[in-house]
Design a protein that fits this description.
364 residues, alpha/beta, Rossmann fold, six-stranded mixed sheet, 16% strand, flat
């Protein structure tokens, strides 16, 4: 009935996509069809996208549901509807495969995309083939840090600011040496550096493979990005991930990280980062992203102290926890509880869609 009513609206000139018709059908399963009021408002809130379509919707509702305009529905025999799934793997009609089944009723062709399903699927449930497809999707991701003022100045179209003597003199040559049109400069902008610290311990094994591929896609995007692997020790892997070949980059990374799938010492690893790279300049004014589930074998007080040091110098600290998407999750792990007060953004990281949202958080 929901599909038939959507078809009536389309015939009346109302744009009703398939997704709205599906939402209307789901609403009818909750409200039922025995009362006209809930049915009316369910259809009006789910099927219409413009207020100009309300009068047309009212007339179609009267004709279809209340039958006040003399329109009758055939109820003696059910309509036979044939649904054909048009997948990307199946050959087109007439080019092999089984012969199509003849049907007297209408045929509804439904096309679905595995990529859309893969975007919301948890990394822990991926197969090997899905990992390969996800790698191709991750290659389209580009990380851009939030903009910051640069010391380099650029030409300005405004008539105020710092004078640009070189451009002013060059323009004066067109008017006999008189500086009639003066030029000015303004402070330029450049994206902030992004520092990615990925936990590769044993507790992160279902997600570390996908997250390291995400790090590789970010590094080869040729931005100001630094990458580190964190387990029982901290390893800088920016150079290993700079290869365009993802398999070669991951193989070099695995060889350079001796504590892969081992224990976790988040506090000691962050202390090494702060002492050798972060406080010295790499983390100053940067967006620091830590990808970890928060399970730590070290001292939580040390982790809290190092997160506080990091927050003082970084522009923003983002913690990505793949377990955050689990039903009923609470940050009760000692490491996660110690670090959370010094985190500016706490986001998920269990799927492609969550990584896309992470890219948006980083760019803010």
């Amino acid at each position: 009935m929901a599909v038939a009513f959507a078809r009536v609206l389309r015939g009346a000139g109302v744009d009703v996509p398939v997704g709205r018709a599906v939402t209307f059908a789901e609403a009818l399963t909750l409200t039922g069809v025995d009362r006209s009021g809930p049915v009316y408002w369910s259809g009006r809130t789910t099927l219409l996208g413009r207020p100009e379509d309300i009068p047309t919707y009212d007339r179609a509702f009267e004709a279809f549901w209340r039958q006040r305009l003399g329109m009758t529905l055939a109820t003696t025999s059910p309509m036979e509807l044939t649904i054909v799934l048009d997948t990307e793997d199946e050959p087109p009609a007439g080019q092999g495969g089984d012969e199509p089944v003849e049907s007297e009723g209408p045929t509804l062709v439904v096309r679905w995309s595995r990529q859309e399903v893969l975007r919301h699927k948890d990394f822990a449930a991926y197969s090997h083939a899905e990992f390969e497809e996800a790698r191709r999707l991750m290659s389209d991701l580009r990380l851009h840090g939030a903009m910051r003022r640069s010391r380099r100045r650029r030409p300005s179209r405004r008539t105020s600011g710092r004078p640009d003597l070189r451009r002013t003199v060059r323009r004066s040559l067109r008017s006999g040496g008189e500086p009639i049109r003066r030029a000015f400069t303004e402070a330029g902008e450049r994206p902030r550096r992004i520092v990615l610290i990925c936990d590769v311990s044993g507790s992160m094994e279902p997600y570390s493979r996908a997250l390291v591929r995400f790090l590789h896609a970010a590094v080869v995007g040729r931005g100001r990005i630094e990458a580190f692997a964190l387990g029982t020790r901290l390893t800088r892997i920016t150079r290993e991930l700079s290869s365009r070949d993802p398999d070669a980059a991951l193989a070099r990374t695995a060889r350079s990280v001796p504590d892969w799938s081992g224990g976790t010492r988040l506090g000691e690893g962050l202390r090494t980062f702060n002492d050798q790279w972060g406080v010295r300049g790499m983390a100053r004014g940067s967006v620091v992203v830590i990808l970890s589930d928060g399970w730590d074998r070290g001292d939580p007080a040390l982790l809290s102290e190092q997160m506080q040091r990091l927050q003082r110098v970084a522009y923003r600290t983002v913690w990505v926890n793949p377990l955050k998407a689990s039903p009923g999750y609470a940050p009760l792990a000692a490491g996660m509880a110690a670090a959370l007060p010094y985190v500016d953004e706490f986001v998920e990281g269990h799927s492609l869609d969550s990584l896309q949202k992470l890219a948006e958080v980083i760019s803010r």
